[in-house]
Amino acid sequence: MARHTFNFDGGEKLTTMGAVWFVSYCWYNKVDKTHLNWKNISTYTTRISVYRITEAYHNYWLEKIIQMNENNLNKNTIGLKGHEVINMAKKLLKRNSI
Would the pTM count as exceeding 0.70? Predict the structure, then answer.
């Protein structure tokens, strides 16, 4: 089966991390150091490297994630519900715009 790549700027990098993982790690990094769902993936160290080199895309990706299908976001393996991911992304955007 072919790998699905997000079809927007930097989408291949977001695909590498995973949209839900990205929001989870962003939440940990900017809001709550006790949030550790992102660590439920064995490849998290590689994903952190991608996260760090893609900072210019972060707000743009959060905007895209807010528009994603909640049911698709539910398919993650780190224990977050789609609606939680969308709400976290909204709060992160609001926080970054201050």
Answer: yes
